[in-house]
User: Which sequence fits this backbone?
């Protein structure tokens, strides 16, 4: 089965406050697409061709697993973004965030800080453990909760390719804009 480059779940022109169309042309059509193409090139003619993306992430090693994780992570990342801003989490998620981080505002601070201080490239996640507890994961490179058997709820891509066109070197400004654009309905749906 060929791994597909999923369409963005929003119009490229609609995210003005977070990403420009140019940034998305590169991030989705070049970077995300490259991970898909690399992966398809590697799984061709192997048993991995019969596996799901998550199966490949778990079973493969090294470069193949890393490319599969990057495909998964980007698919998930795009879904975390809403075309409308000013979204806030509903009561159920708020309660969970209070329980594990003190408050919604404290969670935003901790998640933002984790995204800011991840040295080099990587991903920051809100994930759920087997005992239903929530935790912030600061994972370098192609890190993904899938290999840790944790359930992803939210992620931010802090690879430089995610913000360099619109924010240049200002990762903090990018993180702030991202937190304003989170699709909390999607995050809640992962609980
Ligand atoms: Mn990326």
Assistant:
């Amino acid at each position: 089965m060929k791994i597909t480059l999923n369409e963005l779940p929003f119009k490229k022109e609609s995210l003005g406050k977070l990403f420009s169309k140019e940034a998305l042309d590169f991030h989705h059509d070049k970077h995300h697409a490259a991970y898909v193409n690399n992966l398809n090139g590697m799984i061709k003619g192997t048993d991995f061709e019969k596996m799901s993306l998550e199966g490949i992430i778990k079973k493969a090693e090294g470069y193949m697993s890393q490319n599969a994780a990057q495909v998964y992570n980007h698919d998930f990342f795009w879904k975390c973004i809403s075309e409308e801003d000013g979204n806030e989490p509903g009561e159920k998620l708020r309660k969970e965030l209070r329980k594990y981080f003190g408050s919604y505002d404290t969670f935003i601070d901790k998640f933002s800080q984790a995204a800011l201080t991840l040295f080099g490239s990587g991903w920051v996640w809100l994930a759920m453990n087997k005992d239903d507890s929530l935790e912030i994961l600061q994972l370098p490179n192609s890190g993904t909760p899938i290999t840790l058997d944790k359930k992803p709820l939210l992620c931010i891509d802090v690879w430089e390719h995610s913000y360099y066109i619109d924010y240049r070197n200002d990762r903090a400004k990018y993180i702030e804009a991202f937190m304003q654009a989170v699709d909390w309905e999607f995050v809640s749906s992962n609980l």
